[in-house]
Amino acid sequence: MSREVGAKKWGISRIGMYLFLSVISLFSLFPFYWMFVMATRPSSAYNSIPPTVIPGNQLVGNFQKVLDMIPFFQSLLNTLIVCLTVTIVVLFISSLAGFAFAKMKLPGKNMLFFIILFTIVIPPQLGLIPQYLLVAKSGLLDHLFAAMILFFLNPLGIFLMRQYVSEAVPDELIEAAKLDGCSNFRIYRSIVLPIILPAFATLGIIVFTSVWGEFLWQFTVLRDPESYTIQVALASLNNTFKVDFGMLLSGVFWATLPLLIVFLLFNKLFISSVAEGSIK
């Protein structure tokens, strides 16, 4: 009898948990749905009372206005190039640095690691002017490389990789590889890298989404419309006294789709890496 009561209580609590999570999920997804609704409506629907929650029939028309105003697909391609390049470089540098900080005996490595972590609390706006002057003197303005270079060194990525390597990679495995004559880079390539691949999904999604949403630095160094990233291009739609919200949110909607696709493709790897870290 007590077992049945316990099972019943467990069933009720489980149903309540799922209902709670479903409500939270709906609240989280509603801004995306509202953005889609506004992308299918004229600009006047933005301030309508009561608010419009039913999609309209102007999605293609609003997007055509976006294409007439900005080089949307070129900007989208530029953004993909920037995000993919930065993500690959950050994964390589962060994993290599994380391995060095976690497993190698280097003089002053703890102090250097502390300095790298300390840079997280420094607002990026403080270095905007000197960084811009360095890029300008290097002749990199309006080049996509200028939009990437600041993000190659990621303190959060180095911290995450250091923690993951220190817990996931046994010291005995590295010592055995050294006895076999393996160099440090070969140990990283053949032993450490396969073990930490699940962490790549977590860090990769974090870096990709953060660079995708970056605006201030890209707006500072990219002035040629042909070199615009999607965030800078969409911001240029807002340079008039009368904003067409249907057109603007249509551009935002189509610019958000690749980001959602990337997350859905790597969602399982992301969840598995988080679950694996929590088990450890």
UniProtKB/TrEMBL annotation:
Pfam name, any one: BPD_transp_1
Give the similarity note. Answer: Belongs to the binding-protein-dependent transport system permease family.
Domain annotation ABC transmembrane type-1: ranges? 76-266
Respond yes or no to whether keyword Transit peptide is given for this record: no
According to the record, the segments passing through the membrane are 12-36, 76-100, 112-134, 140-160, 191-212, 245-266
Choose one Gene Ontology CC annotation of this protein and give it.
plasma membrane
- Location(s), subcellular: Cell membrane
Question: How does it sit in the bilayer?
Answer: Multi-pass membrane protein
Could you tell me which species this protein originates from? Psychrobacillus glaciei
Q: What is this protein called?
A: Carbohydrate ABC transporter permease
